[in-house]
Amino acid sequence: MSRNTSPTKEIASCSFCGRTEESVEKLISGPNAYICNKCVHLCMDIIDKKTVHHEMKVLKPMEIKDRLGEYIIGQDRAKKTISVAVYNHYKRIRAQSKSDDMEYSKSNVLLLGPTGSGKTLMARTLANILDVPFAIVDATTLTEAGYVGEDVENIILRLVQDADYDITRAEQGIIYIDEIDKLRKTTANVSITRDVSGEGVQQALLKIVEGTVANVPPKGGRKHPNQEYLKVNTENILFIVGGAFVHLEKIVAKRLGKGSIGFDAENKRTFDHTEQNYLLSQVQTEDLVSFGLIPEFVGRFNSIANCEELEEEDLIEILTKPKNAIIRQYINLFEEDNVKLTFKDDAYHAIAKKAKVAGTGARALRMIVENLLIDLMYEIPSDPTIKEIVINASCVEENKQPEVIR
Prior knowledge:
five-stranded parallel beta sheet, three-stranded mixed beta sheet, 16 helices, disordered N terminus
């Protein structure tokens, strides 16, 4: 008995993404090819981005410093140093696009200072002010190519992703590498081992920091043969690195021979914050090399800015003055529930003192305020009778309940 063997209709699919006609709204056919509506929209977006002209926003150093001051309290010297460095960097890019007569060397920035002093915030705020792509990475996650960890090229990928894969825009962005001091050379490293997360990473970073065309895996991860890469020129990318550089002041003091501030030969001296700020303001290339950074890497950073340890007065201003001040944020959150949140002056001092003791600078402020208000933020949405909350020093120092006005 013969069986009906009529040919099965072949299901058409997009030649670009492989989606079948059942899974898309429209499938447009052409000579030996198909394209779906989703790929059409994607192509239109790419074309639109390529035709957009990104106007270089070059602010003057004073303008940059003033804008930084809207978000960052204190650190006047550091803000001035980084403002000049950023202005010269983007002025160099603009000058290169106009004339080839003069070659300007690339300048990057090294920020040093204790944790919570505003290094990361300064870099992030700069990117927002200049309206350029921004990427941040922790240096401790990086390893040499071929070892378990993250390749340095993945830093560039993060910048490209922040620029929505607009390579031209990414090539004028800012990359901040935190905890750079953790990449110091280890003196215990011997020839039979590899310092793959220290000196090895410094060597790997050299080329991209100085300026090169990096081959970036579009989806991240490890490189492998036959893989297509995004080619990104890092010549005009501004690199800012930051770290606490613990005990660097002792190296500076030893070089300066500062017997007047009590530095002893046995390296046991503990410096107060005033002495530390002075010594760190005198940091030279040789001090960073003695600390454990390789000379070639240090040489890529012409501008060194010291973020000083924050005082109680600075912490109080951080709580209240910046545009995105922590206290303002919580006041607005409480207003959403029709509740007025009031902090007495002594409460500000108590919070700042507690943060100072914590030793993590401004980072401790949000945690202290959050813990102070957590129970109230839990209860208030379910209690419409509450009209005002008053916080004083005893709430911070003795964990007393805030005054509730109904």
